[in-house]
Amino acid sequence: MALAASGVLHQSGPTIMTRFRWTLLVAGCVSIATPLAAQAPATPSPYAAFTQTATVPFVNGARNFAFDLSVAVTVNGHRLTVPVDTGSTGMAVSASVIPGYDPNSEAAKQFPVGWEFLSSSKRLWVGRWVPVTVQFLDTAGAPVAEAKVPVLAVSQAGICTSYVEASSGPNCPGQTLPPAPSTIGYMGVGFGREQDGQSQGTPNHNALLNITQVGGQPVDAARFRLGYVVSSAGIGIGLTAANTAGFRGVQLQLRVAPPNTVQDKRDWQQAPVCIGINTLPCQMGAFLGDSGVASMYIDSTQSLANYTEQQKDANNQNLSVPVLKPGNSVTIQFGPQAAPVAWYRFTVGQQDQPMAPPQVIALSPRSANFVNSGRHVFRGFEVMFDAIGGVYGLKWTGQVPAAQGGMGAAPR
Hints:
Number of helices: 1
CATH topology of the largest domain: Cathepsin D, subunit A, domain 1
Order of helices and strands: EEEEEEEEEEEEEEEHEEEEEEEEEEEEE
Number of domains: 2
């Protein structure tokens, strides 16, 4: 594939490849299946060869993304409704409900100890990574796709405010976690999360990246492109020309594996964005589109002391955190600073603006720039993740006023 001067992908060489090679004239940007001009023929989609796909609907009808997005699944035949979290990686299920698994048995010790720490809620889950079969269900309860993946069979769970992401591992310093309830069900499908208390949040634990069947048929590398789309319709498993039409993509960087570990070619770093607050210079940083929380979180290398005040953390009323004051403006531009592919903007406290989160927690000065959007970003954009080519794509939904977001660069 090569990117023409117009910014549109043209196809060269074989139609079917196990891995696309993106040749970019505008660094970091990828246009996906957009026409050159009205009089020119449509450019072939880089996903034209791929036809295996399935849509997993949201069972709670979360079309305005005000709440957690939930889907129906079975784990070794046991049916669950699980929130889908694009801000974490790995599926977690109460150990007590997994058929055929006894966490107290000798047999359980063969499976590796596992843990997941959710930094926004300070929740720590501890158990073992147990291989299971996960089926994704449609509205009638019929399976539309299947994955073979280890899930975290949680035997201990609790809030751990003393957790140190770099060193605590499966332990909560100063306290013993209580036994896990039987109600835990959670599916993290994000990428690039290993550094945020999720050292085990690797692609081999992501159910959407370990699909074995679609529509009752085994996946075929020639027809199935590993990746997914998140839209108001649900989760599209497997990328095709149809479900990626109209997207523009940001090229991701492969995460380098730690020493003495195997490089996973599905393991990509977070998408680059430029984070602007009021009239401060826009700062490049990492982006996390997080369906699991309502609040936005910003880390800034610039001091934001003049723009913040203390409030109770909406996710933990026991914590007081610095938040952006009402009236401050936040602008997020996706992709390289010189050539953004998409943008959105909101004013803090303006709840009539659909993409404005209820709270913007802003920490500064920090060593690196970062933004966790919270789930409100999905009101304005559909998003896609190509796990083979390393592309994070966005498509404007048109459901939000044009003055608050769109494709290309943000207006000044």
